[in-house]
Please model this.
Amino acid sequence: MPASSLARIMVEGPAGRIETDINDPGAGRRAIALIAHPDPLQGGTKDNKVVTTLAKAFFALGYAAARPNFRGVGASEGAHDEGRGEAQDLIAVARYLKREYGELPLLLAGFSFGGFVQTRAARQLHPQLMVLVAPAVNRLHPETVPRATLVVHGERDDVVPLSAVLDWARPQDLPVVVVPGGDHFFHGRLNLLNDIVTRYLHRQAAET
Model:
């Protein structure tokens, strides 16, 4: 993403201001992508490599890609709330983006803890698409998601076991894309993750 596309803003949220980076392709933007980062208690931020990989994929396809820091992270105000307040933060940022860019299609994406939080935010935001990477379903309790949701998981994830994701996906008849040999952070496989997400978005665009 070109540096000239980046804007760093502060969005008013329920616990204070939310630090948010937005890469905007300009007037030709086709949709909005809101991307949630992993667990801040484990060092997760908007600059996580999986999160920025997702942002680059969305931006390349004409999405305005927004990456907020959850409450208590970076310059975001408030304190960690185990996913409850964080979902409300995402809703506040999504509403800001809608006001800023108009009623464009909304995509929600999240990595690990961020994926779990997005399942909660989706109940109010009703996104057109969702992309969940290694969603934290083993120690948290995510909601069900739309059947068109893309779920990507590493075969050798030792933080969120693949078996836990399959147990969550099975009752929903939700396919899971498994990256052979992939770990939780997709070390050495970020380009493959980019390709999987890009192909998914191309397929969804063709179907609609």
Summary: The beta strands are 6-13, 16-23, 31-36, 63-68, 106-111, 129-133, 150-154, 177-179. Residues 3-207 form a domain with the Rossmann fold fold (CATH 3.40.50.1820). The mean pLDDT is 95. The longest helix spans residues 84-101.
